[in-house]
Amino acid sequence: MAPKKVVVLISGSGSNLQAILDAILQKEGKLNGLAEVTQVISNRKAAYGLTRAQNVGIPTAVLSLKTWQGKNAGKSRQDYDAVLAKAVLAGGEGKSAESIKEQQESTSSSSSQTYTKPDLIILAGFMHIVSPEFLAVLDGVPCINLHPALPGQFDGIEAIKRAHDAFAAGELKDGKTGVMVHEVIAEVDRGAPIVVQEVECRKGETLEELEGRIHEVEHKIIVDATHKILTR
């Protein structure tokens, strides 16, 4: 059976992307033979994760909201999300860059080109809140997100810092934070959890130390969640 096609969206260093790639490329990796990353898309040109992808021959594309709006006066964030989603779907064939260019040059809101859709979309440290317009274009293709908190605990940005601060103030329930991978829905970080792992906070631990332990968990459960979705 051919590997399932996965498109990964990133914004930064791509350490979680690297965890996915290692699980695919290593002979004993959990995703070896099951998945292939066909496209990596970033909303930041300087994201090192793009280099990680290019180093192993994976097509990359960049679509920055600020740059796109600068070239498309009067267009909204929702318009950008629709363009991004179409590029993601084209990523099933590694052709996101072509899709972005086509949409930029077209005078029509619809694309004349159709692509084989990916089997899974992963938001791995993608620092952009996607809108309902993004999800509508995906038309049912599974989309998952990695979030460094337990379900319903610290939605949105700076979740690790907020957990660290709450623990220091004695306000963190059971002294535990965690990491989850969840389905992406319109409500931020409220989709159904796929994999959840608790992380116990430690007295006297710095924010950087907690972040390091959280990231180790992230690298594991992003692979576990990908495997779970692709084998269900």
From TrEMBL:
Gene3D superfamilies: Formyl transferase, N-terminal domain (3.40.50.170). InterPro entries: Formyl_transf_N, Formyl_transf_N_sf, GART. GO terms for molecular function: phosphoribosylglycinamide formyltransferase activity. Keywords: Purine biosynthesis, Transferase. Pathway: Purine metabolism; IMP biosynthesis via de novo pathway; N(2)-formyl-N(1)-(5-phospho-D-ribosyl)glycinamide from N(1)-(5-phospho-D-ribosyl)glycinamide (10-formyl THF route): step 1/1. GO terms for cellular component: cytoplasm. GO terms for biological process: 'de novo' IMP biosynthetic process. The keyword Disulfide bond does not apply. Residues 4-226 form the Formyl transferase N-terminal domain. Its EC number is 2.1.2.2. It comes from the Eukaryota. CDD domains: FMT_core_GART. This is phosphoribosylglycinamide formyltransferase 1. It comes from Meira miltonrushii.
